[in-house]
Design a protein that fits this description.
172 residues, alpha+beta, Aminopeptidase, 8-stranded mixed sheet, 4 helices, 8 strands, binds coenzyme A
């Protein structure tokens, strides 16, 4: 049985170990993902941090933190890092964590979420590339957004350059 729940005060070491192990052989890994999760937690910026637990063991984790758009904060969040123990990948755990995290953001009144990663993976959750939301330094198709509030009247959709929380500079 898979349990998804918010992280608790004693989960940090297990999340750190899981994140390090999951990203060890991942393409595009900076090797800093575990430090990023710690830095976000220490800064109070882990808006949503969920663990997946199987037989009492943490086998997956996903983090969501606030982003800014052209320096303005509020309403939009970034997905990641997300990790699943290698031997348990491709069983839906990552997808379950992401869907539950997005559900919680919606319940909190968030306006949307962005993600930097494989478009083929994240598009299944509804993420799409949007030329109005820019993230410098990566091919545009690798940066996607999911608007929770729907695309409003012309001019009301967010537009600008997205920046992740400074915690993403940790461990570099
Ligand atoms: C990405 C990750 C969290 C997905 O977790 P998961 O539990 O394996 O995902 P799910 O079981 O929900 O989904 C598996 C599907 O996603 C696909 N998938 C997984 N990672 C993918 C990727 N990087 N690019 C494209 N597709 C990917 C698989 O091929 C599989 O597709 P299928 O169902 O058609 O076979 C996990 O693979 C992982 O921890 N990877 C290492 C760390 C990482 O790269 N994190 C993402 C960057 S922030």
């Amino acid at each position: 049985m898979l349990i998804l729940r918010p992280e608790t005060a004693t989960d940090a070491p297990a999340i750190r170990a899981l994140t390090d192990a999951a990203f060890k052989d991942a393409p595009h890994s900076g090797g800093t993902e575990a430090a990023i999760v710690d830095a976000l937690r220490n800064a109070g910026a882990l808006t949503v941090s969920l663990v997946a637990v199987q037989e009492g063991v943490i086998v997956g984790h996903v983090a969501f933190s606030p982003v800014t758009i052209d320096g303005r904060s509020g309403g939009w969040f970034g997905l990641g890092p997300v990790s699943v123990e290698s031997i348990r990948q491709r069983r839906g755990i990552g997808g379950a964590l992401i869907r539950e995290g997005l559900r919680r953001l919606v319940a909190m009144g968030a306006e949307g979420c962005v993600v930097l990663g494989e478009p083929a993976y994240y598009s299944r959750f509804g993420f799409v590339a949007d030329s109005r939301l820019r993230y410098p330094g990566v091919p545009p198709e690798y940066f996607q957004r999911l608007a929770f509030t729907g695309t409003g009247p012309a001019g009301t959709d967010p537009e600008g350059e997205v920046a992740y929380h400074p915690g993403f500079g940790a461990g570099a």
